[in-house]
Design goal:
With 162 residues, this protein is of the alpha+beta class. The protein has five helices and eight strands; from the N terminus they run E-E-H-H-H-E-E-E-H-E-H-E-E. It has one domain: Aminopeptidase (3-Layer(aba) Sandwich), CATH 3.40.630. It holds the Pfam family Acetyltransf_1.
Length: 162
C-alpha cells in the first residue's frame, strides 16, 4: 500500500474526523495501558510496554494508513481512538470513555470509503469472539463472518463502488 498519498484529514461529521498519524500521543499510550481494552483486543489483560506501543503504532504507520480519531469536545477536537487501513484490513481502537457512541462506526465507514477510493475490493477485520460490541459494529456495516479460530473471528466486507 502506497501511504504517500494518504490524506492528512478525513471529514466524518461536524464533530468527528480522522487525522493522519504523525507522532505517538500520550492518549494513544493510555489506550494500550487499559486492561479492559487489551482484553477486548487481545484476549488478555496484559498492557503494552512503552516499546510495544511504539512498535505497534510504527508498524501500522509504515505498512498502511493510520489515523487518529478526533471528536469535538467543547471548542476543541480531542483524540478518542485510532484506526488503520493495512493493505485490506481495518484495525480500530476506541478509548473506552467514547465507546458505544457510534464513533467506531463512523471511523470504519470512513475507511471503507477510503478503501473504495484506493480500489480495494474487500476489507477484512479480526475481532475476538467475546468482543460483542465490535462484532455488532462490523456486522451492522455489512461485514460477514468467514472464519473463526482460536477465539478470533475473521470478517469480510465488499467495498462499494461510487
Amino acid at each position: 500500500m502506497n501511504t504517500k498519498n494518504q490524506p492528512a484529514f478525513i471529514h466524518l461529521s461536524e464533530t468527528l474526523h480522522l487525522v493522519k498519524f504523525d507522532v505517538l500521543s500520550d492518549e494513544a499510550r493510555s489506550w494500550m495501558e487499559n486492561e479492559d481494552l487489551m482484553f477486548a483486543l487481545r484476549g488478555d489483560r496484559m498492557i503494552f510496554s512503552d516499546q510495544e506501543v511504539e512498535s505497534y503504532y510504527a508498524n501500522l504507520a509504515e505498512n498502511g494508513e493510520l489515523y487518529y480519531i478526533e471528536i469535538l469536545n467543547g471548542d476543541t477536537f480531542h483524540q478518542c481512538g485510532s484506526v488503520a487501513l493495512i493493505r485490506n484490513q481495518i484495525k480500530i481502537i476506541v478509548d473506552p470513555r467514547y465507546q458505544n457512541q457510534h464513533i467506531g462506526t463512523a471511523a470504519v465507514e470512513g475507511l471503507l470509503f477510503r478503501a473504495t477510493v484506493l480500489g480495494i475490493p474487500q476489507i477484512y477485520a479480526q475481532v475476538r469472539n467475546h468482543n460483542t460490541f465490535s462484532l455488532k459494529l462490523f456486522q451492522n456495516l455489512g461485514f460477514k463472518i468467514i472464519d473463526e479460530a482460536d477465539h478470533v473471528i475473521t470478517m469480510c466486507c465488499d467495498t462499494k463502488p461510487f
